[in-house]
Amino acid sequence: MPISPFDIAIILISSVACIYCIVLSRRLRALQNTRNGLGATIKALSDSISAVSATTDETRYHAGELAVRLARLIEEARSSCERVESLTQRLNEAHDRAASYRAPEPAAPAPTTGAVQEALDVSNQRLQEITEMMHRLKDLSEQSVVAAEQEPPVLRPLPTQLRPRMKVV
Questions:
Q1: Are 128 and 78 in contact (CB under 8 A)?
Q2: How far from 2 is each of 5, 6, 12, 15, 86, CA to CA, in Å?
Q3: Is pLDDT above 70 for 34?
Q4: Which pLDDT value is given to residue 20?
Q5: How far apart are CA 112 and CA 126, in angstroms?
């Protein structure tokens, strides 16, 4: 039986196809290799994703704890502000009562002694300082409430907790 050129072409094309399949098979095995290939990369990425997911959950938990703590601190600041206001009001009332209990001054004012005048000056100065402090505390607590309501808490990753879980391949 004679060999025709068509048979030779078919044999050549089929042998080239076999060689191409062998090359593709080697490349596919190299990609699936879990040490050096794409398999190792996919494994490293999945490990990193699980580590980031765990860190995100921890961060959410800590952010919730911090939000509760901040709310408690704001409430304490408000109650402290109310106490300072009531103490200031009571101090003003006591000062007014003390002023009303003083004896009426004679027509010609008697010179006050240096110690009494000094005590009155110190008392008035302390009262003014307490009032200013109360106003500053109230302003600060209001500013912190406004800032807390306007800006969400900034969540930063915790690098000391993230590093041990990540694997570098």
A1: no
A2: 10, 11, 17, 21, 119
A3: no
A4: 95
A5: 20
